[in-house]
Amino acid sequence: MTFRKVAIIGLGLLGGSIGLAIRQHLPGVRTSGYDNDPAVRLRATERGLAQEIAGSAAEAALGADLVILCVPVGAMEHAAKELSGALEPGTLVSDVGSSKQSVSAALAKALPPGQPIIPAHPVAGTEHSGPDAGFAALFHNRWCILTPPEGADPAQVAALSEFWTALGAMVEVMTAEHHDLVLAVTSHIPHLIAYTIVGTASDLEDVTRGEVIKYSAGGFRDFTRIAASDPVMWRDVFLNNREAVLEMLGRFTEDLTAMQRAIRSGNGDALFDLFTRTRAIRRSIIEQKQDDARPDFGRGDHG
Amino acid sequence: MTFRKVAIIGLGLLGGSIGLAIRQHLPGVRTSGYDNDPAVRLRATERGLAQEIAGSAAEAALGADLVILCVPVGAMEHAAKELSGALEPGTLVSDVGSSKQSVSAALAKALPPGQPIIPAHPVAGTEHSGPDAGFAALFHNRWCILTPPEGADPAQVAALSEFWTALGAMVEVMTAEHHDLVLAVTSHIPHLIAYTIVGTASDLEDVTRGEVIKYSAGGFRDFTRIAASDPVMWRDVFLNNREAVLEMLGRFTEDLTAMQRAIRSGNGDALFDLFTRTRAIRRSIIEQKQDDARPDFGRGDHG
Predict the structure, then answer these.
(1) What is the ipTM of this complex?
(2) Which residues lie across from A53 on neighbouring strands?
(3) Partners of B122 in the beta sheet?
(4) What are the structural domains of chain A?
(5) Checking phi first, is residue A39 left (phi over 0); if not, alpha (psi -120 to 50) or beta?
(6) Pick from A219, A251, A301: which is nearest to B226 by CB?
(7) What is the pTM of this model?
(8) Between the CA of residue A287 and those of A25, A281, A290, B195, B219, what are the distances in Å?
């Protein structure tokens, strides 16, 4: 492993999981961590999310050859500025943010010219957040996308790739622009839709909130799971990946309008065609082990 | 238990689960079953989904004091007609369909005047379908909604309620009209949205299907799970609960448009407010045991 000391800034679900995954998979690599919230730092110490919990971002970054920013994408620039004075010229700065064009720009702006920067995004998570949410296996069999800027050092791209592979992830390299488009579809729009429908259901007058909760096993509860994700993180994602999100949202609403028309006009064939087509993509996701085939609406104890 | 013999017409996920649940929870009750598909009948025999697998719906209904139709809602009228000649005057006819006004009307039309009818809807299911999908615990801790028509015999409502309670369900009684509105929100719209976004993602030109699959762990895969549900069943639901679905879809798209505007104008507060509000409903669902709190995006092996 190229990196001897990794500094983790932000000790929530992602940062904490990285610390625990390093402890499990790369026991020779030292870790330091920092979080703006003192309560999080305390809990991180108790759980051992990093070997050393520092009193500032700069202190955590001292002597690190890899710094990973695990804060909401709207806080990246500020976090990078806080620690920029502590970086050695060769220290690689990376992150785990869900939008990459904005983070790339923020880091380039905050850090000294020439500081190596390779943004990254491990496509993994749960609906839980905070220092108790992380676990070492979070990245197992998940994809981590690297978006090196033009002119990035291939040796550092390889080193970061090796790092994520060691934590159990599979690595893919693409441009920040393409990343933002792909994730708008596979992550951002699903979250936006889930948040919205849960909001719609909470505000109805003719159906009570109690009824929505009681009968949520009909499908709705899966949306509430996604809609329980961290609000600050997600606010920042939508503000920072605005164009791709609006583009994909436009395509979704066009398709939804077509479905609405099919229902209104009683066009059962159009509905049946779509409902059949969508099964194939589910099969591929299971084949590629990005989900498992156990029935889940029933949740547990199937005979 | 009031019922001595229950006939189950349609031996997919719901019908099969009822058969297995009766065997487990009501061993004194006899069961007969029928499915239009000979391959399903064969598999139902092998799995013992009912004690006797009959050669026709009418044969299955002979001597039953409760007949439960477990076919897609668009097939209810036909199934009821097929067996109506075999019914005794006091035999209670029920069903498990996801829309209740249309089923109520279909059964009343197909069955002899005066035949007792109490439509029902156990709000339970998985994304799997067919004779291999059922399991005895499917109804445990799930709500079953009865929608007795005006003038229904209270003793039969009580008997059907007792039956579902014995299978592990909790029972609620409401009008068919209200049922259709509630389920439009908690089940039908979530399914429609999930089918649609999975369709949108499958058809993109600038993001490949392979990429959608690889990065589905970002949230998308939860929608593919729902969108893998039985296409015939769901086509029929949308055609048969058209008004309530269109009404709720209208409210959802209004809210989605407001979110779109918030993203476009960079209104982070509006996004944050919604994303915070939606967490409360998730907590209530977990408190009421309609879902569990284990993190699920990670799917298994959290340390």
Answers:
(1) 0.89
(2) A33
(3) B144
(4) 5-174 (3.40.50.720), 178-287 (1.10.3660.10)
(5) alpha
(6) A219
(7) 0.89
(8) 26, 10, 8, 20, 17
